[in-house]
Write a structure and sequence with these properties.
The protein contains 13 helices and 13 strands. It is of the alpha/beta class and 315 residues long. It has 2 domains: 117 residues, Rossmann fold, CATH 3.40.50.1980; 157 residues, 3-Layer(aba) Sandwich (Rossmann fold). The strands form 3 sheets. Strands 7, 8, 9, 10, 11, 12 and 13 form a 7-stranded mixed β-sheet that branches. It has a 4-stranded parallel β-sheet with strand order 2-1-5-6, sandwiched between helices. Strand 5, helix 4 and strand 6 form a beta-alpha-beta unit.
């Protein structure tokens, strides 16, 4: 049996949440520059950094990312010196998306420079079940399998309860989720699952598919009844700051959702795009948008994490 690690470094926010969920948060010795939850895990040494700024408009951020990729550069890099000082025995990273967090190959390169070495656990979930399975994998890696199983059972019970409530609703609205504004990208991976569990009908993407990009003509050919806008990495206030871009997208769009006022903004940083335990809270937020009358409790609970856009005029 492998000895449970006493020193853990987490290089992505969702993994930090998982480590804490299974009771090993007190063994964290380093995190990524983006790890911001739970509060007990903040303030630790940061061992990654970004090569780009997210302060610009969505189009500028997208252009910067594409420019780095064209130069064969990673968006994020490992601070090898800081990682060496932290001296982790286990490093949790990912190999799902090089735009979302430091890449596995960069972590492996950093490990070659560390004198003591460390075990590496890489996560790459594309579905809700895989996210929950990763909680168990983290539990195994840190020696907390029993605690992980209890936490996953509790998360599944919450998911099942929401799905049962949604199934009792009389309608299943067509739902479109947007995870980037310029260019417009449609939510994929686990988002279709969350929509179905919340009592909606997902549009454009299937479970496990990566986010496609749609132009205005393709968007106008759709007719969603509910639209959720939650750009990846953007808290609600950051999305709100893109007001002009939102107006350009929504003004005159011939959607039932825009004329009826069923367009919602939500926190795409803490929720939805972070494949960790708070996907269950993401499901609660989504259910309150899809069926507000049936999920008034969730609307109240998550009032700070979502807001409704005013109805748009037709062109």
């Amino acid at each position: 049996m492998t000895t449970p690690p006493r020193r853990i470094a987490s290089l992505l926010p969702s993994a930090t949440e998982m480590v804490c969920l299974v009771g090993a948060g007190d063994r964290l010795v380093a995190t990524s520059h983006e790890c911001d939850f739970p509060p007990a895990a903040t303030g630790l040494p940061r061992v990654t950094r970004s090569r780009l700024s997210l302060s610009g408009a969505s189009a500028a951020v997208d252009a910067d990312v594409r420019g780095l990729v064209e130069q064969a550069l990673s968006v994020y890099e490992v601070d090898v010196d800081a990682l060496e000082r932290a001296a982790p025995e286990l490093i949790v990273t990912q190999d799902l998306c090089e735009v979302c967090a430091v890449s596995r190959k960069d972590v492996e390169a950093a490990l070659c420079e560390l004198p003591g070495g460390a075990r590496l656990l890489s996560l790459s979930p594309t579905t809700l079940d895989e996210v929950l399975d990763d909680v168990l994998r983290v539990g195994d890696a840190v020696g907390e399998r029993a605690r992980a199983e209890r936490e996953v059972a509790a998360l599944r019970a919450r998911i099942d309860a929401i799905a049962a409530r949604a199934a009792a609703c009389a309608t299943r609205p067509r739902v479109l989720t947007i995870e980037w504004l310029d260019p417009v990208m449609i939510g994929g991976l686990w988002m279709p699952e969350l929509i179905e569990l919340a009592g909606g009908e997902p549009m454009v993407t299937q479970v496990g598919e990566h986010a496609p990009t749609l132009d205005r003509d393709a968007l106008a050919a759709l007719d969603p009844e509910v639209v959720l806008i939650k750009p990846c990495g953007y808290p609600l206030e950051r999305t709100r700051a893109e007001s002009a871009l939102l107006d350009d997208l929504l003004d005159g769009m011939p959607w039932t959702a825009t004329t009826r006022g069923d367009v919602w903004l939500a926190d795409g940083n803490a929720f939805f795009n972070r494949p960790g335990p708070r996907l269950v809270e993401s499901l609660e937020i989504l259910a309150a948008c899809v069926h507000p009358d049936a999920f008034g409790d969730f609307a109240t609970r998550h009032a700070a994490h979502r807001e409704r856009r005013a109805p748009q005029r037709s062109r």
